[in-house]
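Batch manifest, entry 17 of 40.
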Amino acid sequence: MSDNNMMTEAMAGRVIKYGDNVDTDVIIPARYLNTSDMAELAKHCMEDLDKDFTDKVRPGDIMVAGKNFGSGSSREHAPAVIKASGISCIIAETFARIFYRNAINIGLPIMESPEAVRDIDDGDKVSVDIGRGVITNSTKGKTYQATPYPGFMHDIMETGGLINYLKDKGEQL
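Output type: structure tokens
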């Protein structure tokens, strides 16, 4: 495994929660896409939905959302800017398919668990074991099961994304 951007099996953080249909235009508004500087873009993450997001997010926090998270355009900036903002994982009822693939490709852990989403509240302390697909809400003392990643997808996440995974496999890029 590569040492570049390697994620850990377990993550823990405070929850920042949103509802259904959070689309890529509110994750990172198109008006800011004139730069590729992720630190600069992270300053505008979620601002059209939650003006206080950049003030309250801390490294390791976990985003929780409802159905169809990441719908809209196919821009890879959306999961990348969430990751750059400090979010360590997103738990949602469902993800838009292109967002799901883009998140995997850049090494942003995402998990689908309707039960967890219904029960977890904004501000709860949550830990996530990506390898086992286990979500633990330490605030409420509850555990939820999500589907763990299949082997190759787990390896992609462990190496920090598709590019690092291919480098580790010795692929010519």
